[in-house]
Amino acid sequence: MSADTVSAPSIRLAFTASASLSDNLQRVLVDLIALELVGKQAHWNIVGPNFRDLHLNLDEVVDIAREGADEIAERMRAINTTPDGRPATVAAATTVPAAPEGEILTTEGVEYIVSAIEAVVATLRGVDEDIDSEDPTSSGIVEDLIGKLEQQAWFISAEVRKPVR
């Protein structure tokens, strides 16, 4: 029997995502990919007071977004749906605000990256209940990302916050 005549076995995974679950996970994926990209853009171009701390903290955000995107995409494959992380798809669908061009003063960078994180968290929170109703496993991933990203928003915003009295 030649390699040309060997057919692949017909294996079907036990759970297949509905169109709604697939769409919700895709929304999460594109926002995480966009956050990774704009986080790195800010990381490269941040200047000013507390540069080093913010520069390093931005890499933490990028790592969370990159790892989260990979986990979501692999979860999508595990539940028989196809992730789409192509640049045109991400650009067309993300809720993350566009990154500023050129150098970014640290105070402006803080404001921008916190708004980008908050956009992603809004997407995560907006889809979590629907995801949970169909697939608690995927919801657990989303909830973990909410906690990590909200913590980063707090860390970064503390760079410019004034004490509440």
UniProtKB/TrEMBL annotation:
Molecular-function GO terms, alphabetical: ferric iron binding; oxidoreductase activity, acting on metal ions
Domain annotation Ferritin/DPS: ranges: 23-161
SUPFAM superfamilies: Ferritin-like
InterPro entries associated with the record: DPS_DNA-bd, DPS_DNA-bd_CS, Ferritin-like, Ferritin-like_SF, Ferritin_DPS_dom
Range of residues in the leader sequence: none
Family: Belongs to the Dps family.
PANTHER family: DNA PROTECTION DURING STARVATION PROTEIN 1, GENERAL STRESS PROTEIN 20U
Protein known as: DNA starvation/stationary phase protection protein
